[in-house]
UniProtKB/TrEMBL annotation:
InterPro entries: GDSL, SGNH_hydro_sf, SGNH_plant_lipase-like. This is GDSL esterase/lipase. Pfam families: Lipase_GDSL. It comes from Hibiscus sabdariffa (roselle). Gene3D superfamilies: SGNH hydrolase (3.40.50.1110). CDD domains: SGNH_plant_lipase_like. Residues 1-20 form the signal peptide. Belongs to the 'GDSL' lipolytic enzyme family. The keyword Cell wall biogenesis/degradation does not apply. SUPFAM superfamilies: SGNH hydrolase (SSF52266). Keywords: Hydrolase, Lipid degradation, Lipid metabolism, Signal.
């Protein structure tokens, strides 16, 4: 009985932590309670990944917000929170909590899982196709109606896990252009499918400059981006722009829209964001980093000894770990004039 009570208490602790950010807003446009659906990876995940497996449920993740690990791959809020806050929507709850918090489903759902991609990756979580299957099943189960979908917004995050998995499996970027074309083609299929389910406003993030992630700048002491990967990122984004343009032409609409995360990253890296916005001494250096290549942020050894170092002030850093921005980093990205204009155009179209 004691064990059951303890297990329930731990469940409640994590559930409350995962949902602590629901009422937090950024600067909004006031569209009311429109449903918000999210698909993708760790840049958008707010807690779908399993507590026992994911680093996002380990200290020091979540130390800035909500003050403890809550399933977000950051020290605090992530992309989904800032988009929802900017548009004055509620951050949608993770899909995994839909039964425990059925009353929140009316605001939408977040289907994103950290580590996943357009195709299968090494992460033990559903890829984007399966995530869309989850929404389709909810429609069949009458959780959402046609009118619900027609007045909703979807955000699709594909931030590079397919490409990281490709390199891990093949050992190099040889053959990347063909694979990039395959990724964008499948991403296009996914966007069209979300539209076919009834969603009429679909935002897809451009690919960030992967060569500038700390995982790729560590060899230069976080001073220089890896240019080969960035060139391949440019190819992805060019193909994505073509795909979105074609989708709008084919549907005779402006339903599909690119949120230019790529240019927002460069604006922050070049320290040219709006006056009064966050500045970072070295935007390529992470706050939390493993003591060696064998360890990552949040790692401990068999005795519980920390195997990572942590900066003194996450607000002074753009990157949280080797892949993900800090909460302040995300705030900087969403504070760039170009990105705010993108969101306004999305919502006003």
């Amino acid at each position: 009985m004691v064990a059951q009570t303890l297990a329930f208490s731990i469940f409640c602790f994590f559930l409350i932590s995962a949902l602590s950010g629901q009422q937090q807003g950024v600067e909004g446009l006031g569209k009311g309670e429109v449903k918000f659906f999210v698909f993708g990876d760790s840049y958008a995940d707010t807690g779908n990944n399993r507590i026992a497996l994911a680093s996002s449920w380990k200290f020091p993740y979540g130390i800035t917000f909500p003050g403890k690990p809550a399933g977000r791959f950051s020290d605090g809020r992530v992309s989904t929170d800032f988009i929802a806050g900017y548009l004055r929507m509620k951050t949608p709850i993770p899909y995994r909590w839909r039964k425990q918090l059925a009353g929140r489903v009316k605001y939408g759902l977040n289907f994103a899982y950290g580590g996943t991609g357009v195709f299968d990756t090494q992460a033990p979580y559903p890829n984007m196709t399966t995530q869309i299957d989850f929404l389709q099943q909810l429609i069949k189960d009458s959780v959402y109606t046609k009118s619900d979908l027609e007045t909703s917004l979807a955000f699709v995050s594909a931030s590079g896990n397919d490409y990281a998995n490709y390199i891990a499996m093949n050992g190099s970027t040889a053959g990347f252009p063909t694979f990039i074309s395959n990724v964008v083609s499948q991403l296009t299929v996914n966007l069209r499918r979300i539209h076919s389910l009834g969603v009429r406003k679909i935002a897809v993030g451009s690919l960030p400059p992967l060569g500038c992630l700390p995982a790729n700048t560590a060899t230069s002491s976080f001073q220089q981006c890896e240019q080969t990967q960035n060139a391949l990122v440019n190819l992805h984004n060019q193909l994505l722009l073509q795909a979105v343009t074609n989708l709008n032409n084919q549907t005779h609409s402006t339903s599909f829209f690119i949120l230019d995360i790529h240019d927002a990253f460069w604006t922050v890296f070049n320290q040219t964001q709006a006056a009064g916005g966050p500045k970072f001494e070295n935007p390529l250096q992470p706050c939390c980093v493993g003591v060696s290549a064998a360890f990552s942020c949040g790692s401990v050894d068999e005795n519980g000894v920390k195997k990572y170092t942590l900066c003194s002030n996450p607000k002074s850093m753009f990157f949280w770990d080797s892949l993900h921005p800090t909460q302040e980093g995300w705030r900087a990205l969403y504070s760039t004039p170009a990105f705010q204009n993108s969101l306004k155009q999305l919502w006003q179209n």
